[in-house]
Structures are given as structure tokens and as C-alpha cells.
Amino acid sequence: HVQLVESGGGSVQVGGSLKLSCVGSNYMYSSYCKGWFRQVPGKERERVAGMNRDGSSSFSNSVKGRFTMSQNNNGDILYLHMNNLLPEDTGTYYCAARECTTQVFGYWGQGTQVTVS
Known about the structure:
Elements: E1 4-7, E2 10-12, E3 18-24, E4 33-39, E5 46-51, E6 57-59, E7 67-71, E8 77-82, E9 91-98, E10 107-108, E11 112-116
Parallel strand pairs: 2-11
Antiparallel strand pairs: 1-3, 3-8, 4-5, 4-9, 5-6, 7-8, 9-10, 9-11
């Protein structure tokens, strides 16, 4: 099992940038497939980014070209770099992890709020 803790959310103006961090509680996180999701009240949770075990990543069309991901050398901290932020990027952002043999994300952080205005 792994616990995830996000940080880095806040309020930013349109066009601004934020960097979210997700810290895994133990070494197992480095071997998991990872993702970032966002939730807006009244809307379905959206997966905005995913990273495979080999470090390859993918992004939703809504953030492609504006968001990137990176991780530290140990693979136990995942970053979401958000640039050129838009009002529709507002929401609660969650990092999540899953064993790469399954499609179900079983580990979730507590969420961090991002507000773009």
C-alpha cells in the first residue's frame, strides 16, 4: 500500500502556471502507474494525465500542450506542470496510482484545489 499527498494548488490568473506535487509514502510508488485527475462539482472526474512505469506519459486533449509531467530520480515524487492555465482548469486535482497490471487506480491523494480566474 502507498499513501499519496498532493501539494501546490492555489489561485492563479488566466495564463499563469502552477506546479503540483504528489509524494508517495514508500518505494512502491515508484513502480506504479500514475495519474492526475481533476474533479469539478457537478461533472465527472476527468483524467488529465497518466504516466506508465517506463515514464511515458499521456494527456487529455483538454490539457495537451499546456500540461507536462515529471518525476524525481527515485520516482517517488510526481509533478504536474500546468502552464497557460484557463478558467476551465479550475477544480480539485488528485494524484492517483495503480499497479500497472490493473486499470483501476486504487490509491488516491486527498486532493489540492486549483482556481483559475
